[in-house]
Amino acid sequence: MPFVKTSDGTEIFYKDWGPKDAQPIHFHHGWPLSADDWDAQLLFFLGEGYRVIAHDRRGHGRSTQVSGGHDMDHYAADASAVVEALDLRNVVHVGHSTGGGQVARYVARHGQPQGRVAKAVLIASVPPLMVKTDANPDGVPIEIFDDFRKQLAADRTQFYLDVPSGPFYGFNRLLTKSSDAIIQNWWRQGMMGGANAHYEGIKAFSETDQTADLQAITVPVLVIQGDDDQVVPYKNAALKQDELLRDSTLKIYSGAPHGMHTTHAQEVNADILAFIRQ
Fold this sequence. Notes:
The chain is of the alpha/beta class. The chain has a single domain (3-277), classed as 3-Layer(aba) Sandwich (Rossmann fold). The protein contains ten helices and eight strands. The chain has helices at residues 39-47, 72-86, 98-114, 142-165, 180-192, 195-207, 211-216, 238-244, 260-263, 265-277, and strands at residues 3-5, 11-17, 24-28, 51-55, 91-96, 117-123, 221-226, 248-253. An eight-stranded mixed sheet has the order 1-2-4-3-5-6-7-8, with helices on both faces. Helix 4 crosses helix 5 (180-192). The termini are far apart.
């Protein structure tokens, strides 16, 4: 399997499909999943003639289950290691949830200074800041994230069934048809990763203030989120991203859940394709 070794010795697994001279689209997955979460996008954009890349975050999927570095700085540096190893240029970076935070920090601190980024897409993403603070009164109370950690530590196998069965895909909604296959695939990806990486990753995605990252981004950014996102409230995420970014296009999907790139893959793919082709 293809891996890139980072400066601290972590091996990052990646997929790299399509013509090497085509424009690259690099996908960054959410917590606690893997590059496999992008199947619907990888195949679609491969069919459209693009080069598609996706990697497993450190401690997730097939990447090394290291004991440390589970924070946005390392996540972004690891993404940069993949981009540099493959010498990717004119890249469109697409991130979902935690992966959106990873994209924001990567673009601001690595991709733009290196001149490697063309555009970015944030899907149901965590920036600028999820947790409730005095400066972020509309955020999610810290007790919610403490409960995530408690459930993960007590019974990760059950927790990783409960999340996709309920709020992640909106399967807890009365009129939404559930999918056992999607739930099991979420569980499979989650259980591939390390419990310590996932536990520490909760702090990374909930408590990292990325206001400065968003303000530093100058490339065009597509911001999309569902107004029924039960994981990352869109008013504190997509709407604020649109305010902070210099060049953004905002699209809110009526009734879409957090995992909208799976449940609304056709619409999401079409919107991203149109944005790239602009």
